[in-house]
Amino acid sequence: MNIAEMIDQSLLKPDVIRQQIEQLCLEGRKYSFASICVNPIWVKLCKRLLYDSTLRICTVSGFPLGASKPEVKAKEAEIAIGDGADEIDMVMNIGAFKTGDFKLVEKEIKDVRNVVGKDRILKVIIEAGVLTNQEKHKATEIVKACGADFVKTSTGFGYGDATIEDVKLLRKIAGKSMGVKASGGIRGYQTAINLIQAGANRIGTSAGVKIVEQSFSTER
Questions:
Q1: Dihedrals φ, ψ of 156, to 5°?
Q2: Catalytic: which of 73, 107, 144, 181?
Q3: Which residue among 52, 112, 170, 172 is least crowded, i.e. fewest CB within 10 A of its CB?
Q4: The one catalytic residue among 8, 86, 89, 166
């Protein structure tokens, strides 16, 4: 297994500077990650730096709270696609979902799906750490029905780390037709492997370089 091909190497903190983005692009080239994931403001720069590379650029919409209006999330995704993004990780409106306003959640996912189009990847973050198992089940069903490519466990911004139990549950509901991305607290090779074995086929982490380097030493 080439674990690098399953990693979205992420740099989403608010204090990121240009030099860190440049380094991220260099790491992306070196390790051939599935994608590099950055905040929307950096997409154009990444596109310029990676003009001759097949490395995918991922960015976020409604991040990290998910509380933006559907039209704002769709516009954010539209601008990001125009700037060169290949993948969008949008945050579901968790408050609306927990209130039972499933129509709003469905609308925002479908709106972003329409903007992203069929040739690019849409992942929907459900923030599993604040949901009951029943809610995780329902959220994954909605994400799948609205045509997203992946359901994603969390933003990684303090609402609980990715767990084996959550990934197994999401994979059970997602079936074989939709991806499962594990994100949050994934800082080592064995943790990543455990989540992949549980059913994840993407890993969101800022520790991708460390994980790949550990995989090299493990395979020797």
A1: 85, 10
A2: 181
A3: 52
A4: 89
pLDDT digits (tens, 9 = 90+) for 62-94: 999 999 999 999 999 999 999 999 999 999 999
User: What pLDDT, in 10s, does the model give residues 91-133?
Assistant: 999 999 999 999 999 999 999 999 999 999 999 999 999 999 9
Q: Which of 104, 190, 181, 179 is nearest to 148 (CA)?
A: 179
Number of domains in the chain: 1
Return the number of other C-beta atoms located less than 10 Å from residue 92's C-beta: 25
73, 107, 152, 161: which is the annotated catalytic residue? 152
Q: Is 111 one of the catalytic residues?
A: no
157: CATH:
3.20.20.70
The range of the structural domain enclosing residue 174 comes to 3-219
Q: What is the pTM of this model?
A: 0.97
181 is catalytic: yes
